[in-house]
Amino acid sequence: MATETKEYSYADVAAHDTKESLYVVIDDKVYDVSQFVDEHPGGEEVMLDVAGQDGTEAFEDVGHSDEAREILSKYLIGNLKRSATDPKPVTTPRSTASTSTDSSSGGLPSFVYAILAAAVAAGGYYYMQLQQQQASA
Fold first, then answer.
1. So what's the pLDDT on residue 130?
2. Cα–Cα distances in Å, from 16 out to 47, 77, 129?
């Protein structure tokens, strides 16, 4: 392992905002997650939304597991060196008791909406197929 940690400016990170070259900042650490985009369980759109930006709030809002954090650690490339002109990080209180399984806070994680949308789409598709079969019989 290298003993020296590379530092990236916010501009350095912002230059990597595509699927092919995707950097994201989580807790002032810089990760090159380009190779993980296609494997991300939430889909590539979720990652592209925070590409080249500070994704700490989005990462914490979902309530990632310890396994997800371990996977993320494999993509660590350095630390963010903030300057006075950089956007300020958005911080939200972190609670281990309230994660993605707690919907009493009024909101559901985005992946729940994606699953619901897929279920409705599949149900609609099968309903249309059934209607076509009945019409041709």
1. 83
2. 12, 13, 44
